[in-house]
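On to our target:
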Amino acid sequence: MQMPDAVTCLMGNHERMMLDFIDDPVGRGARWLRNGGLQALASYNIGRVRENSDAEELVEASLALEAALPEGMLHWLRNLPLQYQSGNVCVVHAAMDPHLAPQDQTRQTMLWGHNEFMSTPRTDGIWVVHGHTIVKEPQLHPQRISIDTGAYHTGRLTAAAIGPGTCEFI
């Protein structure tokens, strides 16, 4: 990669769920297993675990996953930012509360969404680029840009090239 610092990866709900599984496989692991965790474990050749596995199997799978991750990956995942802002464009995984400034957003909202996000435009001039909610085509709304075209299901990954007064979907 020519410019590695030009890429900012954000924490999403699936990364958070995976970390929750590693930290507390018995108490908080089932949610991740239901939402892609079983497939992620299989990609590391970690099998014999199900959403309703007993505590011993869940702990064993959690430890196996932690051991299988490349060196430094767990630290990198734990330190992913929840948002990135450049000028009046803010990028988050899921949503922002349209009534709060970017710096006042909660972790829960940025990872999982907000009930007014899709229906209430911001009034502060901030444009929010987000995924999490799958759309058939990328969408440009007042103060909001939706780019999640369901790559895991459709095979179609969407990005937005944003510049002064422009937004091009690629």
Notes: The radius of gyration is 18 Å. The mean pLDDT is 94. Residues 13-78 form one domain.
